User: Fold these one by one.
Assistant:
Number 1:
Amino acid sequence: MTETFAPAVDSAVDPSYDPRTGAQHGSVSHTAPEQVAEILRRAQGAASQLADTSPATRQGWLTTIAESLRTHEDELVQLAGEETGLGADRLRGELAKCATSTDFYGAVAAEGSYLGASTEVIGGDSTLSRWNIPLGPVAVFGASNFPFGFGVIGHDVASALGAGCPVIVKAHPAHPRLSMRLAELVSNALNRAGAPAGSYALVVGFDAGLQLVDASEVTAVAFTGSQGGGMALVQRAAARGVPVFAEMGTVNPVFVTTDAAADTAGIAAGFVGSFTLGAGQFCTKPGLLFAPAGAGIFEEVLARLSQAPRAPLLTAGIACGYRAGVAQLIEAADVAGNVTPTVVTGETPTDPADGYVAAPQAVLVRLEDLHPGSRLLGECFGPVALVCEYEDTGAALDALTRLQPSLVASVFTSGPGDPESAEVVRRLLGQVGRVALNAWPTGVATSWSMQHGGPWPATSRSDATSVGAGALGRFVRPVAVQNAEPAHLSDALHPDNPWRVPRRIDGRLTLPTL
């Protein structure tokens, strides 16, 4: 059984702020070093038990967690609203998706193909068997912008548990009270479901997070957040050779083909809706739109922005970074001689006591100013985006290759016969993890085919995804045994197939019987 959840006590705290007002409402104590050490010891002790537990049993644990999230929906949405300012509708939707994705990762585990189980005769009576085993304890660093989707529970935590790894989560300081309550619910759900003690725990505080990265017990780190934070973890963990799966994000491009620009109003409306969604605090936010010159898309974007509401950003630090970033973007465009818009909904407050409200903005830039080293190619977290009008399609496509690689790109075409679309997609596939055709990039489906990752610096591991069935693959590694007897094998390759998973026997895929 899992240990009873108990908050840690220490002199340092993470204060809890309301982004709508800037007022503080309580705080959460940091986890003391000796408590972190005990959590690590318990996780290490649970690792072998989780690895030996059938995927179907782990599915039951995740189902119990999902049910608990749904049961406590009203309480969690209210608490999340107090600490994020994201609004009840957005938070209810995110919580519902979190519960659904938690169920999904359990189903992926039970299906079993992530195990890669294979056995064959390699000559004479010699055999070779190969399968994937869990890495061991995983440290997860929760994100500020998705308190349910990438927090104390969410994609990283659920996929690691599904893969058979104990999880230790570091709470994000943007929502410490919510993190504590979520951790309590997850811990209690695992306890009821019969998971081993040490399967899951929460730590709070910057130093506690560093202690996790440095700990010999931790075998992998999952992180969602800023490029600076992610790369700091990558460099720190490199001393031990520990993989860090950091999803950091950059500027996600949108390309409108010549023929597609006929839908000026629709594209402008979709663009504004996408880059202001959640106050622009999505890693998949479209940050740079390429549009044919003369189509009037930029003017239509400005008209739409005049109706867009201001919204609070998550933290005082993010609000300050947004103000500075927008000023830098406008200055960079001014230096290039452009006419730069435009705060069209009022000034962004500068006093944290007034909350962290931000006004959405758009900046017009030139194609020739999109070069390596330009501030115009750096991410600005919040509801701001660039529009670049192009005269020549070839020159615009060349500019695409000068962008930093990113998580996702959108391409808007006139339909299946669009003469430009194939080349645009070809160029983008070398730059991003996912291309969305005639769809905005902000939506991420939890599915078997989803790829939510991308080349560096969008992520630290371009071979990984943090959403979808492939997410379990981050937390396992392959092993092989030659001339194994049944007692030497995982149940995934036992002759009786007690886990009822697909295997490849002598090169032929064999599915479990119903």
Number 2:
Amino acid sequence: MNRFWRRTRIRVLRLSRAVVRGWRSSLQVRVITSTLVIGVVTVVVLGSLLSDRIRDGLFEQRLEEILDESARSTRQAQDTFDAAPANTQLQQLFVDLVEGLQVGGTGQRDVAIQRPLRLDASVTPVFVTLPASDERLVPLISPELRRSVGEGEGQRWQSVAIPAGNPSGSWHDPGVMVGSTVTVPGAATYELYYLYSLGSEQETLDLLQRTLASGAFAVVAVLGIMTWLVTRETVTPVRSAARVAERLADGHLTERMTVRGEDEMATLARSFNEMAESLQVQIRRLEELSALQRRFVSDVSHELRTPLTTIRMAGEVLHGARDDFDPAARRSAELLMMQLDRFEDLLADLLEISRFDAGAATLDAVQQDLREVVTGAVDQALPLAGRKGTWLHVALPEARATVEIDPRRVERILRNLLVNAIEHAEGSDVQVTVAADRQAVAVTVRDHGVGMDQDEAAHVFDRFWRADPARARTMGGTGLGLAISLEDARLHGGWLEAWGRPRQGACFRLTLPRRAGIQLTSSPLPLVPPPDEPPVPEVLAVYRSTPDPASLPDLDQLEHR
């Protein structure tokens, strides 16, 4: 039994979820359902009010006729009693009166004569058998009605249920019992009751209610069909526009909506097609402009290499003979070599960016221990850290962090992150942490320097973007390093993310899948440092930075805390 109820509950839940999904996913279903619900509620309310008004009208009209007829019959009976001779047998008079009163002006009725509940002591009672047109109807006269008739003058009436005459004895025909008093001279006062059936009125009311129900069903059905047609005419173009928009978003710029007629929907389709045509033209122009820009950057970068090579050769000659120059000429030779290095770096970055834009960048992926790549990048950043007075703290896992990567590109990412962290650390420590799980490996580079706000973190990977363009840079970067690093990470199917807070430093996290084809869902390392972050991890390798790069230890001579 428990299993049955469990399965039933599961089926009901599934059905409920399917209904909710259908309700949320279809505008047409929502409109039709809402219209039908409102229509049904409105028809039911109006039908109930109309049915009640018709029922009350029929009842009041029939009741007025019944009371008028019973009053005339009562006066007729009283006149009969008054005109009867003194020697008339009272029993026979009652019987003839009941038979005569059965047929009224509006149809058949039942008549009964009853003694009053309380007899007048001054009148000698006459014991006769009180007749009734149907003895089964005498119990319908309630004690409340008899007391009301006996205590007052005039007519009293009460609604009753008349037996249908079926074997089960069910009560279903409505009726009205009308009572009044008549006085028999020399005998006593008796109660005269008339029973009127409202069966014909009930049949009329049932017919009207069935007609109203049929009309209401027809109205709701027509309302539902009309709503379906209207919503279909409205929703179909919208669905078509959504499909075409999805195709346009997927790059199928030639997709267009079908235009039919001259109505508002046709105007919408034409306007949508004109918009799509304009977008296609603009996208093609942008693609052509982008292709021209990439070609220009690539051509200029290649063309500049030849004169740059000549200039470098001349600069190296001057730089080699700088000791023979006066101080001003010697400084000029040194500045020339520094700017030539920057120029070569800029050309290399521009060529790399052009390869990414052209989709020509490829991976030379191999199985590599990420710890080795991290230590190699840290080793290259040590001279800069020494000049800036920054300590590099590196935390490596004990187990191998094997990953399928292009070592050259990943090392370039890490080198850019380390240089960026050292530049902005303002002499504070820089922490490098490596971690791995079954799906991915991650590296975080954390500094405690100037930091950045959320807007700067959102633009830190943009090309040629700087948080403070006027700030002097020690390394004279090109503004493309982080942009290239982001493209390298994407080429591996990984993430490169940034977090920062003003005066609290920044943290960059590189997450790479262990193998090609793995879709990243999480990272082994958090991007946002915890509030109670210790200044230095508990167990890590420390690269001690000193002003003299020559005194830096080898990787095999790391200090451990």
Number 3:
Amino acid sequence: MRFDWSFSRDLALGFAPGACQRCDSFPHAGHAYTQPQNLPTTMQPDEEPQLFEQCRVCIVSTDLLPLETAEQLAAVIEEYGGEPSIHNSSPTKDDTAECTHIVSNTINFESYDIACKALIPVVKPSWVHTSLSKRKLANPRQHSPDPRLFLHDVVVTCGDIPEGDKDAIIGGVVAKGGLYSPRMSALVTHLVDLTMDSDKARLTQAKKLRAKIVLPHWFDDCLKLGRRIDERPYILPDPEILRANPDDPIRGNGNKGLAGASTPEPSALPTVNIDAQGTNDRSVFDGKCIMLSPDLSIGSRLLESIETVIKQGGATVTGNVNEADWIICRFREGFVYRTASRLDKEVGNLAWLYSLMTYNEYTRPLSRMLHYPISRTPIPGFEGLKVSLSNYVGEARIYLENLITAAGAECTKTLKQENTHLITAHGTSEKCSAAREWGLQVVNHLWLEDSYAKWQMQPVSCPRYNYFPSRTNLGDVAGQRMLERDVLEKNFFSSEGLPSAETVMQDKDNDAPSMQPPADAKRKASEKASERTGTPKANGKTRKPSEKKVETPSRSRLIPDNKENETPSSVSSRKSKEAAIAHLHDLAPDIALYEKEKKRVGGVIHGGRRKSDEDRVRDNPKKRPSVEAEGESDTEQVNEAKRAKKSRPAITMHLLITGYQSWVGKGNEKREDADKRHLRDLGIMVVQDARRCTHMAAPSILRTTKFVNALAYAPVIVHTDFVTTCLKEDKLLDPADFKLIDKAAESKFRFSLAKATDKAKANKNKLLRGFRIYCVEDIRGGFEAFKSIVDVNGGECMLFRGRLALTNPSRREESDDEDSDEDSEAGRHDVFLLSSAESKHARLWPRFRQVAGDIKRAPRIVRVDWLLDMAMSQELKGPEAYELTEDMIGNEEE
């Protein structure tokens, strides 16, 4: 929806609008405006003749703001004291610098970035009308055409809704460029209400106003996404979001804004819409000088065709980047790209050039992500990602596929378990269900666009990336994100260290000749400069550093006495190095402490050591080293750190501790930390990962995740009395004296701990190799616990929710299975479901049997005891004694 400037002007001035000469309706952009017969009575020019007195207004005439309309605007501004000027194309740099406001219905003009840098507001024509109606200059932000203020053409009023919701909606609308009206008027575009029974809703219907009556949910969804979505599902009296079923298909409305902007590398020259017959239609290329970069890698015939079209439009083609207004290149690298970007020239790719040819209308290359050159290197963190798409169609799907590739990830047509992300337009599809069951990241396209615009992987935990409005296909709003010039400059053409625009020429690649003058030329030039300025030459004697005390130079003396031929920039560079060295000396104590921590077993501890840690290097706050003795003090600290490290004994065991009562309970964290440091001083490293442990301490045989997982690695198992006694006697004792013996538990679980350890050594974590085990979602103990047990024993464990088909193992897996023991062959060709006899779990059993039959595998629905008994005894067991049947539902013993 777009504001009708003529309609807004009439209403702002307080009189009824005139009729359009062509369609006998409200006047609008593109049709002639008919001045009303009755002049405004609320405000005459002589009442506020100086309203725009200090305003120099540039009016940019485009297709959205025709010349006739621009002339009428200029007349109004001039009538109230302003200085208007009309530009058929973008204002020049000088024109932009002289004006105070730019009036345009779009940001797609060349000097927009220059205006933003100069803090010159760009406003829509409604700013003029609102200023006249209020008799003061209106806030430019509420009339900005910037699409990032996605509610910029919304004027909202509220009906009978709670005050808290009303304040939130008003604040959100105003923050995103919209306006609030306390009363119902013809200017209002949206009335927020819950029913059609309010006074404002009745007034809207009675007077047939154009305002849409929407639920507050629309504003809520828009603000959550940061995009303006379609209002139709939220419009009263019969909003779709309240009557549609969750499983009803969500259809998109199409995304016409992506036409010509869905790929960075178009394959063919488009149908050209540039007038070559000499008519009055102005070409977008008129008067421009364009450079086609060599990195486009296009054939000579296509290159000739492009140049022909450009020249027919009134432009010239050049090979000099300094002469060009627009530069067309493929990648964000190279001398041409960096030079043009640093000189604030328009840089776009071939897709952008083709779009200009097709529509003969200027657009900023930064306003479409794939209209700007791409990078050869991926976004940090995107390399290796495998991303699939769901529910996006047409241009939106093509656009996202190309954007994924441009970001450095791999876009897959189908969704597999090896995928890392699923980008979906709404949350209801088979792919979404599969991705959630497989633990993949499910996000909307905003995550991808924000990551690409900020050139940094955004956290998927951000709420706006996981939000899907109930009846909206987000493919309709794809492609609205713009690139940020500050981010591009920081990552691709930073001018840091370049004192002026002229030094950009120093950034040439190997294929360009060097622009640096030779050393002799530099010396002669500096000598001539010295003679002109009267600076005495050096007498040829070299001063020793000790002959003069080092002082901080005053602001008026940028060049030292003994450096007549040095330029101020070189002096500044040397001072920067000296400052960096001094700063490095300040950091020396922290560096020494870090080096000590880095060499510690286990690496640098996250967050650093506590002040109470016994082995922490302590600094004396009362005694600070002097500048002269700083280097000596640093050496002493490093030596002290080395001596402290040598004083600690080598690690003789990695101990995993589970069920240690002295550390259990709230308030024992400090004791646990102290005990672990004490054990480390005895040569015992306490670990949490079962893969790293050589010993395990437990009070008895337990069925904890730690205990069961550690058994697969065959550690030496001791009683927790070993830990207590070592701490008490302050020495490392023999673990053989504290072996864990628990005959009661061995009898209860029907296995031998000693035999299980021996079998674990022989199994080498391959006990369940080839087994495919599924688990219901809310199993007692948690899916993650059972998955870890299966994983450490070489099996494969997945979540089963009943909505997906099972997958057949690959032929390679089957060939590996054939090499396994014959005793386990039957089990490896079955599929297992860990479940309980609860009714909510039993509802999944028929589906499990069905999908197991589809892949010709025998379904086995078993209790979790089957897995635990195998993991603890380290031997395979038949599932028959553990299988669940329908007659057990509700009768299983806990």
Number 4:
Amino acid sequence: MTQNNVSAVPNIMLIMADQLAPQFTSAYGHPLVKTPHIDALAKRGMRFDAAYCNAPLCAPSRFSFMSGQLVTRIAAYDNASEFPSSIPTFAHYLRSMGYRTCLSGKMHFIGPDQLHGFEERITTDVYPSDFAWTPDWELPDERIDKWYHNMDSVREAGVAATTFQIEYDEEVCFFAKRKLMEYACEKTQPFCMVASFIHPHDPYVARPEWWDLYDQADIDMPAYTLTRDQQDAFSQRLMDGIEASTVAVTEDEIRNARHAYYANTSYFDSKVGDIVRTLDETGQLDNTIIFITADHGDMLGERGLWYKMNFFEHSGRVPLVMAGPNVAKGTVTSPCSLVDILPTMIDIAAQTGHDKPELGQPIDGRSLWPMATGTGEDNGDAIGEYCAEMTGHPVFMIRRGDYKYIHCDGDPAQLYNITNDPAEMTNLADDPTYQTIADNFAAEVVARWNSAAIRTDVIAKQKQRQSVYNAMQHGDLTAWDYNPPRDAAQEYVRNHMDWTVAAAKTRFPPLDK
């Protein structure tokens, strides 16, 4: 470590992957995939072994994560749902507690507000911010080829020198490291930075140096696959929606896709290492609590499914590792979810005596800080909701104790014992031995959600957005896509500056004078 820059209030560094299933990391026990930097954080911190997203789709998951609120509470239904400016986020709350807040990378904000509490956003986003990706629940079986997933990502998996995803993540990492250096030079404390990457999200295309980490012959195939006829009703619709029902893929194509995914997981892990090294070089590591997580997972051929959009373990679970001052070493088995990160961050910021802010809205999460600091399991739960494409009714998930329960109107219920059956091979919902458990979950679904009212609101919101989007295709367009502000006249060395002052300002550690 170059210099000790410790302050009384800990910094927060959250590093987020896109579509990273924890099962495909060495940190969570995969025998082949190499994630040494996440492994190192897990070894010196707390690994949460039953962390879930609250919606297995990018934008809804991220809005829920940012706000600490479930999807149906804030109408964050799909990848074109607006994230209103009036919803408080952890960035707002931390900002009110004296933190500098910064976002580098993807957050998939939809709407004209592209900051949502972050003082600075130092990159653009990778996906559009308008209403174009709105599904239509009145035509739930209709594919929109322009933006729906299909099997091309599997069939075209392989190696390339560059892709838009590689370009994006290189930018995300560079600007994150530059900002951390700036914080060190300016002695900015405390800060909360989110560095959010697009990998290992499909397309499954990797650079050669990451692809070559793995021998093609060593790539494991899906452990448990089902044909369409063997699938549950919702999974059949997923297979139809991604064209897995009609587009065959070969074993070589499946192996290529998994090979590239493993390679890109190692690539993401290398970015974790770059950021941790920068924290170390700038003397900020000992006073920074680091989170590693993702917005959702990837089925990657397990059960015959791909991508996400369901609540099976490879899609619904996410990695969650915490490391830093006061974080204990160990593992947590209690179910938790991304809505728990907001109250956890508030607890982190308040641990040195800072007053907690008044919450602008009720939150659905609970703080994980007690478990992270070693006080023991809290036996909490994880709640999931899915209200996007490839369905016409909301899908609900409750994970509590050993069990996971999945409900969608019109579909048979699903109940799995995750402890005894982690591959979810046996649906216990109709097993007389588990009737009381299934009935209790079914009653909880009815008490917790009004599925018909949610469906009505989803369709109404879809019509609103479709109307706005169609109108915006006419006349001059003012895009909502974020354009990071940069003033070249103030960068590097310019005639109105003393170059020696500029050199000293950006040098770390500073020269002793």
